[in-house]
Amino acid sequence: MQNQKLNVTGMTCDGCTSNVANALKAIPGVHDVVVSLSTGEAAVRYDEQLTSLDQLKSAVKGAGYGVNAAKATPNHQSKGGCCG
User: Fold this and answer.
1) How far apart are CA 22 and CA 20, in angstroms?
2) pLDDT confidence of residue 69
3) Phi-psi category of 29—alpha, beta or left, where left has phi over 0 and alpha has psi -120 to 50?
4) Which residues contact 36 (CB under 8 A, 6 or more apart)?
5) Is the pLDDT of residue 71 over 60?
6) What is d(CA 74, CA 41) in angstroms, rounded to the nearest whole number?
7) How many CB atoms lie within 10 A of CB 26?
């Protein structure tokens, strides 16, 4: 199992966090997702044999949000999301 934190941009409400969590949970191999609006982070535990960081990022982008690996500087744009 791999643990990864993602910086998610564009989230403005609890509906946004639900959208991100659901997009990540839909990926085969994802076992646990915790999304925080206050920190702008998604913590994901996944099986690296079944999915990859690129697939996680793609799912978040597909849900309408920006994403970077946690070590990258977050981009605080307010565009996108379910309330934008």
Assistant:
1) 6
2) 72
3) left
4) 17, 42, 43
5) no
6) 10
7) 12
